[in-house]
Amino acid sequence: MRSLENKNRTSVDDIKSLRLITAIKTPYLPDGRFDLEAYDSLMHMQINNGAEGVIVGGTTGEGHLMSWDEHIMLIGHTVNCFGTSIKVIGNTGSNSTREAIHASEQGFAVGMHAALHINPYYGKTSSQGLVSHFETVLSMGPTIIYNVPSRTGQDIPPSVIHMISQNPNMAGVKECVGHNRVKEYTDQGIVIWSGNDNECHDSRWTYGANGVISVVSNLVPGLMHELMFQGKNPSLNSKLMPLIDWLFREPNPIGLNTALAQLGVTRPVFRLPYVPLPLERRVEFVGMVEAIGRENFVGEKDVQVLDDADFISVGRY
């Protein structure tokens, strides 16, 4: 495929330099549409607490529950409102190369600084198919490759990453396989962001990762900034671990959605198939906020335990 003109002026080196990238949550109104007022408020909290980039419409942002029109609109909105203050990385990946091409064209057209691309999932493909898929989408602009076998059902093997790592638009890899894989890449000069909040401290300071693409930074961006910027801090890392474990006890973003609702940052609205954590877990969260300190969490309202009746589940949106 011929190289496409890239109207985006962000350099790959600008993306490689990022250390704290938040996989931003998408809030909803009671009818299931985007709550852009709550989204903008959460974005301001990320910027004010030191996040350098955001993933828009990723797993945490529920891009898989969006139409492509919604998806590109949210990327464009984020660029328009915050693009001079933070790097906007649009999740334009797909298990269909055709869709990934089209979404990336649109994402770069509305000004995103980089794309996030996952390997084709469910149907899977061969190693050569992975290389061809990534080389095709890499032609469009700065790109982070995302490897999360627990969701895609297929690991991106190091042989594939090595083959595409010389592409000038390859910014690096969001890697979820673990420390040994992180070290293998960083030893060879490939930029890596930890995709696991529970591993990111050690990945950053022991195994050479550049930083983290984080879920928990939606909640405690200032503490995650400290964890990524201020050197080894096993005490802070240990302090955050119960919260991280709580967040991922059920598949992400169920815990995050529940937590942000109880903090009063987003409305308690879930797009199905996601549903809130049960009451017992909601009570646990309040205790964690008190233990870590309410001042370290986003929002200004008192944390509360929401009742089952407070939550809205939306099936048509």
Automatic annotation (TrEMBL):
Keyword Lyase: yes
Positions with a binding annotation for pyruvate: 60, 213
Reaction equations catalysed: L-aspartate 4-semialdehyde + pyruvate = (2S,4S)-4-hydroxy-2,3,4,5-tetrahydrodipicolinate + H2O + H(+)
Known pathway: Amino-acid biosynthesis; L-lysine biosynthesis via DAP pathway; (S)-tetrahydrodipicolinate from L-aspartate: step 3/4
Single GO BP term: lysine biosynthetic process via diaminopimelate
Group of enzyme by EC: lyase
CDD domains from the UniProt entry: DHDPS
UniProtKB keywords: Amino-acid biosynthesis, Diaminopimelate biosynthesis, Lyase, Lysine biosynthesis, Schiff base
Lineage: superkingdom: Eukaryota
Matching Pfam families: DHDPS (PF00701)
Catalytic residues in the record: 146, 174
A GO term, aspect molecular function: 4-hydroxy-tetrahydrodipicolinate synthase activity
SUPFAM superfamilies: Aldolase (SSF51569)
EC number(s) per entry: 4.3.3.7
Function according to Swiss-Prot or TrEMBL: Catalyzes the condensation of (S)-aspartate-beta-semialdehyde [(S)-ASA] and pyruvate to 4-hydroxy-tetrahydrodipicolinate (HTPA).
Family of this protein: Belongs to the DapA family.
Name the UniProt record assigns to this protein: 4-hydroxy-tetrahydrodipicolinate synthase
Organism taxonomic ancestry: Eukaryota, Viridiplantae, Streptophyta, Embryophyta, Tracheophyta
